[in-house]
Amino acid sequence: MTEKQEKILHAALELFAREGFTATSTSKVAKHAGVSEGLIFRHFVNKEGLLKAILDEGERRFKALFVDIVMESDPKEVIRKTIEMTSQIDKADYNFWKLQYKLKWELEVSSDKKMEPLRMALTNAFSKLNYESPQLEAELILLYIDGLGSALLKGSTIHPDEMNQFILKKYNI
Length: 173
Prior knowledge:
Elements: H1 3-19, H2 26-33, H3 37-44, H4 47-70, H5 75-83, H6 94-106, H7 112-128, H8 134-153, H9 160-170
Protein backbone atom coordinates (compact mmCIF):
# COMPACT_ATOMS: atom_id res chain seq x y z
CA MET A 1 0.00 0.00 0.00
CA THR A 2 1.36 3.40 -0.93
CA GLU A 3 1.85 6.25 1.50
CA LYS A 4 -1.01 8.17 -0.11
CA GLN A 5 -3.36 5.19 0.17
CA GLU A 6 -2.48 4.92 3.85
CA LYS A 7 -3.14 8.66 4.33
CA ILE A 8 -6.52 8.27 2.66
CA LEU A 9 -7.47 5.27 4.80
CA HIS A 10 -6.29 7.00 7.97
CA ALA A 11 -8.32 10.13 7.13
CA ALA A 12 -11.39 8.04 6.27
CA LEU A 13 -11.06 6.04 9.47
CA GLU A 14 -10.77 9.19 11.57
CA LEU A 15 -13.73 10.90 9.90
CA PHE A 16 -15.95 7.80 9.77
CA ALA A 17 -15.26 7.20 13.49
CA ARG A 18 -15.95 10.80 14.47
CA GLU A 19 -18.75 11.83 12.11
CA GLY A 20 -20.16 8.55 10.85
CA PHE A 21 -19.93 6.83 7.50
CA THR A 22 -23.06 8.32 5.96
CA ALA A 23 -22.21 11.87 7.06
CA THR A 24 -18.69 11.77 5.59
CA SER A 25 -18.18 12.59 1.93
CA THR A 26 -15.23 11.50 -0.21
CA SER A 27 -14.39 15.17 -0.77
CA LYS A 28 -14.11 15.62 3.01
CA VAL A 29 -11.86 12.55 3.22
CA ALA A 30 -9.70 13.89 0.37
CA LYS A 31 -9.35 17.29 2.02
CA HIS A 32 -8.49 15.69 5.38
CA ALA A 33 -5.90 13.43 3.72
CA GLY A 34 -4.45 16.25 1.62
CA VAL A 35 -5.09 14.45 -1.68
CA SER A 36 -7.42 14.90 -4.63
CA GLU A 37 -10.82 13.25 -4.56
CA GLY A 38 -9.92 11.59 -7.86
CA LEU A 39 -7.09 9.75 -6.13
CA ILE A 40 -9.62 8.20 -3.74
CA PHE A 41 -11.68 6.97 -6.68
CA ARG A 42 -8.58 5.65 -8.44
CA HIS A 43 -7.46 3.61 -5.44
CA PHE A 44 -10.76 2.70 -3.76
CA VAL A 45 -13.42 3.23 -6.48
CA ASN A 46 -15.89 4.92 -4.09
CA LYS A 47 -16.71 5.57 -0.44
CA GLU A 48 -17.90 1.98 0.00
CA GLY A 49 -14.49 0.83 -1.27
CA LEU A 50 -12.85 2.88 1.48
CA LEU A 51 -15.14 1.29 4.03
CA LYS A 52 -14.41 -2.18 2.68
CA ALA A 53 -10.65 -1.57 3.03
CA ILE A 54 -11.18 -0.47 6.64
CA LEU A 55 -13.44 -3.46 7.38
CA ASP A 56 -10.87 -5.82 5.85
CA GLU A 57 -8.29 -4.33 8.20
CA GLY A 58 -10.77 -4.85 11.03
CA GLU A 59 -11.05 -8.52 10.12
CA ARG A 60 -7.27 -8.83 10.21
CA ARG A 61 -7.05 -7.10 13.60
CA PHE A 62 -9.84 -9.22 15.08
CA LYS A 63 -7.99 -12.36 14.01
CA ALA A 64 -4.74 -11.04 15.49
CA LEU A 65 -6.48 -10.42 18.83
CA PHE A 66 -8.03 -13.88 18.88
CA VAL A 67 -5.24 -16.11 17.58
CA ASP A 68 -3.44 -16.49 20.91
CA ILE A 69 -6.71 -17.20 22.71
CA VAL A 70 -8.07 -19.67 20.17
CA MET A 71 -4.78 -21.60 20.14
CA GLU A 72 -4.62 -21.82 23.95
CA SER A 73 -5.25 -25.31 25.36
CA ASP A 74 -5.63 -24.42 29.05
CA PRO A 75 -9.33 -23.55 29.57
CA LYS A 76 -8.63 -21.11 32.41
CA GLU A 77 -6.11 -19.28 30.23
CA VAL A 78 -8.66 -19.02 27.41
CA ILE A 79 -11.06 -17.33 29.80
CA ARG A 80 -8.38 -15.11 31.40
CA LYS A 81 -6.96 -13.95 28.07
CA THR A 82 -10.43 -13.18 26.74
CA ILE A 83 -11.37 -11.17 29.81
CA GLU A 84 -8.11 -9.21 29.63
CA MET A 85 -8.31 -8.70 25.86
CA THR A 86 -9.70 -5.16 26.04
CA SER A 87 -6.71 -4.11 28.14
CA GLN A 88 -4.41 -5.12 25.29
CA ILE A 89 -5.77 -2.51 22.89
CA ASP A 90 -3.44 0.43 22.33
CA LYS A 91 -5.05 3.84 22.89
CA ALA A 92 -3.55 4.94 19.57
CA ASP A 93 -5.95 2.45 17.91
CA TYR A 94 -9.09 3.75 19.63
CA ASN A 95 -10.41 5.51 16.49
CA PHE A 96 -10.18 2.24 14.60
CA TRP A 97 -12.12 0.36 17.27
CA LYS A 98 -14.61 3.22 17.70
CA LEU A 99 -15.43 2.88 14.03
CA GLN A 100 -15.98 -0.86 14.41
CA TYR A 101 -18.51 -0.17 17.19
CA LYS A 102 -20.13 2.71 15.31
CA LEU A 103 -20.59 0.58 12.20
CA LYS A 104 -22.42 -2.07 14.20
CA TRP A 105 -25.13 0.52 14.82
CA GLU A 106 -24.96 2.91 11.88
CA LEU A 107 -24.82 0.29 9.12
CA GLU A 108 -26.02 -2.66 11.16
CA VAL A 109 -22.75 -4.49 10.50
CA SER A 110 -22.74 -7.57 12.72
CA SER A 111 -19.61 -8.75 14.46
CA ASP A 112 -21.10 -12.18 15.23
CA LYS A 113 -19.14 -13.87 12.45
CA LYS A 114 -15.90 -12.23 13.58
CA MET A 115 -16.52 -13.36 17.16
CA GLU A 116 -17.33 -16.98 16.31
CA PRO A 117 -13.80 -18.40 16.83
CA LEU A 118 -13.65 -16.73 20.25
CA ARG A 119 -17.18 -17.88 21.10
CA MET A 120 -16.22 -21.47 20.25
CA ALA A 121 -12.98 -21.30 22.26
CA LEU A 122 -14.82 -19.94 25.30
CA THR A 123 -17.64 -22.48 25.04
CA ASN A 124 -15.06 -25.25 24.83
CA ALA A 125 -13.17 -23.84 27.83
CA PHE A 126 -16.30 -23.67 29.97
CA SER A 127 -17.23 -27.20 28.86
CA LYS A 128 -13.82 -28.52 29.94
CA LEU A 129 -14.33 -26.83 33.30
CA ASN A 130 -17.72 -28.56 33.64
CA TYR A 131 -19.86 -25.43 33.76
CA GLU A 132 -23.57 -26.15 33.59
CA SER A 133 -24.22 -23.80 30.65
CA PRO A 134 -20.96 -23.34 28.72
CA GLN A 135 -22.60 -21.51 25.81
CA LEU A 136 -24.30 -19.01 28.09
CA GLU A 137 -21.08 -18.45 30.05
CA ALA A 138 -19.26 -17.78 26.76
CA GLU A 139 -21.98 -15.30 25.72
CA LEU A 140 -21.75 -13.58 29.11
CA ILE A 141 -17.99 -13.07 28.73
CA LEU A 142 -18.44 -11.80 25.15
CA LEU A 143 -21.08 -9.34 26.35
CA TYR A 144 -18.74 -8.25 29.14
CA ILE A 145 -15.82 -7.51 26.80
CA ASP A 146 -18.14 -5.79 24.33
CA GLY A 147 -19.57 -3.58 27.06
CA LEU A 148 -16.19 -2.82 28.61
CA GLY A 149 -14.72 -2.06 25.20
CA SER A 150 -17.60 0.27 24.42
CA ALA A 151 -17.23 2.06 27.76
CA LEU A 152 -13.49 2.54 27.28
CA LEU A 153 -13.88 3.88 23.76
CA LYS A 154 -16.51 6.37 24.91
CA GLY A 155 -14.08 7.69 27.53
CA SER A 156 -15.73 6.18 30.59
CA THR A 157 -13.94 6.63 33.91
CA ILE A 158 -14.34 2.91 34.56
CA HIS A 159 -11.10 1.16 35.54
CA PRO A 160 -10.73 -1.82 33.18
CA ASP A 161 -8.02 -3.58 35.21
CA GLU A 162 -10.17 -3.38 38.35
CA MET A 163 -13.20 -4.71 36.45
CA ASN A 164 -11.14 -7.50 34.89
CA GLN A 165 -9.80 -8.54 38.30
CA PHE A 166 -13.37 -8.61 39.63
CA ILE A 167 -14.53 -10.89 36.80
CA LEU A 168 -11.44 -13.12 37.04
CA LYS A 169 -12.06 -13.54 40.78
CA LYS A 170 -15.72 -14.33 40.07
CA TYR A 171 -14.60 -17.19 37.80
CA ASN A 172 -11.83 -18.27 40.20
CA ILE A 173 -9.13 -17.60 37.63
